[in-house]
Fold this sequence. Notes:
Elements: H1 2-18, E1 55-61, H2 65-68, H3 84-90, E2 92-93, E3 99-102, E4 106-109, H4 115-129, E5 138-143, E6 146-152, E7 158-162, H5 169-175, E8 183-194, E9 197-203, E10 222-228, H6 230-234, H7 240-263
Amino acid sequence: MNKRLLLVLIGFGLLLSSCVPTKDLIYLQKKGSQQESTEVNQIASKPYRLQISDIITISIKANDPKLVEIFSPKNQVLEGNRTETALYYDGFSVDDHGNIRMPILEEVNVLGKTLDEVRLHIEDRLLKEYFNKEANIFVTVKLSGFRYTINGEVNAPGSKVLYVDKLNIMEAIANAGDITMTGDRHNVTVIRQTPSGYEMHDLDLTDVTAMKSPYYYIKPNDYIYIKPLKQKSWGTGKTGIESLSTVLSVLTLITTSLILLRSN
């Protein structure tokens, strides 16, 4: 009787420890004495500044389209087919010196500049060197897709491209099919390229204060890694039913072993 009770207690303990608790699956929970509303960190919402290997698209328009044809690539991706391949070939890539190379204007340094600053710089050069105000020059500068890579415990890992100006980590994860039940939402790692090297930071996405982090809004070329929970390495199951099946199998094995040992 004591042995049976011991087996039941062991099985119950395994069941409790092997399930993934609901609190580990819910995003942005208000923990402790937190305020009712949470503001996003002002640092996180600042405009993105261009870095090496970024690709941007530049569209130049005027009253007479023929006047500005020579300043743009042959295929205007902003108006035509916005496939990743077209954007790669027709966009302007930031080289190792922080420059892009444009027709006629040649080298233009964009490293560390916002998209608006690049636009104003190009407009200023065009008006000073080639056109007057009556030409009504209109310049548009955009990122050629928001690129990031997500790996680990998500349903659709890989490199992603979204045509947006801003992207937070919750949207990035949702675009990857969400974190699996065995993914650790408490320690989501963001690896970010900076002019001085790479930065690595962990976010607890189960805590609403994650919205205050400068890593809540991701940047182009960020790498997001979702670690597995210990339940995955144990192989005991994600839900109570799966864990119960595993526990029952273990108990059956132990009971059978004890019966065989007694019979011998």
